[in-house]
Amino acid sequence: MDDPHHPDLPWPLEGADPLRDELLAAYDDAARGYHDRGHLIAVLRRLRELAAAGERYDALPVQLAAWFHDAVYDGERDAEERSACWAEDALPGLLDRGGIAEVARLVRLTETHSPAADDRNGAALSDADLGILATDTATYDAYAAAVREEYRHLTDEEFVTGRVAVLRDLAERDDLFRTAYARDRWADAARANMQRELAFWGAAAPVGAR
Fold first, then answer.
1. pTM score > 0.90 for this model?
2. Cα torsion for 133, 135, 136, 139, to the nearest 10°?
3. Domain 17-204 belongs to what topology?
4. Residues 139-161: pLDDT tens digits?
């Protein structure tokens, strides 16, 4: 998909097409596996799905945070922080100070996916980002394989240790998803997928439970 004006890539800032194109170029980096333009499109689609279901959030900062949340992704630490800093550097003159702060806050939130109970913007973005966990088996398996490809600089042992820790943290949460719609529609499938992947890694490289 080469058309940046495609309806699956709604860009909320009129007159800021060069910034949009710069972000798309980052997502199109050939070194990326999962966190590419396809992931951005999927997150934006899920945000629209949440809105259509009646979930309320502030569209402008949440959409922009979706565009920026994986703008930096290189398999190294602090990618979310560097993505938030990019937003803080790029948005002055395009958005007011409060809006910029909210975009950056939401981008940083995607490191933990732990919005506060009253954080509607954070809940929407977090759920849209984690929605991949609730997809069908084939899509989930392709996602997991693409994540491994992004961390190809790690040994299998290093990757499995980190991946298992992430999955266990998510799987053990009482509320994996924070919007009512996602809890009702996505939670069971997500937990089943994660448990299946955890079982796979456990068979390949046993890791003790917490």
1. yes
2. -80
3. Hypothetical protein af1432 (1.10.3210)
4. 999 999 999 998 888 999 999 99
